[in-house]
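ok posting inputs for the adenosine-5'-diphosphate job
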Amino acid sequence: MTRIIAVANQKGGVGKTTTTVNVAAALAYLGKKVLLIDSDAQGNATSGLGISKADVDKDIYDVLVNQIPIEQTIQTSSRENLWVVPATIQLAGAEIELTNQPHREARLKHALDKIETDFDFIFIDCPPSLGHLTINAFTASDAVLIPVQCEYYALEGLSQLLNTFRLVQKHFNQDLKIEGVLLTMLDARTNLGFEVVEEVKKYFKEKVYDTIIPRNVRLSEAPSYGQSIIDYDLRSKGAQVYLDLAKEVLTDGK
Ligand code: ADP
Ligand code: MG
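and the output
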């Protein structure tokens, strides 16, 4: 059965895109067929997997706003077994353009209905907001994976995220679950990071993944080569931890 997972946190820079790209690539490396849907106008997941945004003809915007069949947008990536529905800057208009459209929250869900069985996993890289794009992702998904950066104010804003989660559960997708909470960018040299780990575990308990993503410079370098960490440097710490996370996701996450 296909599992559809939205990677979301309305804070920017917490590791959503890094996590989406690399857990998707790790699962592909482990032999799963994976589709990554880039739902952020920045298009960082798109370019990070070797797709030139300048060459993209149709993207997720055309699926959501113009309702073209999603299969017309699917592209191969720099990783075998991993396909991408790209995003480009035109997606920035989608929040406003969807506002007055009927059943706007279910556009992505309906688009995926026809193709989801072609994949083992579908990951959606959400934008740093709780607008229509994130609501579409939540409505289409089985579960939400929440990256939390090991920094001051790590828990700040999470109550709004959980509110949106519950609203979508109540109105559009009653089976929606929390896939897991992922601690990211841990700096092992400071106490602060470990204090945040404890704080987040106190709040989310068994929902927190055992795998914690450390700061790893190879993870930040890989996107500029258009590669996931699996292809850029399989032996790096970054690759190992995202493979660990992929294995946790395979054993049904949290
Ligand atoms: P988001 O999608 O939530 O905005 P990103 O995944 O784009 O966050 O990460 C923000 C920045 O931090 C990027 O420059 C990325 O390369 C870097 N980064 C993310 N995770 C790590 C990590 N574990 N170690 C080092 N740099 C990271
Ligand atoms: Mg991002």
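notes: The domain at 3-249 is CATH 3.40.50.300 (Rossmann fold). The first helix runs from residue 16 to 29.
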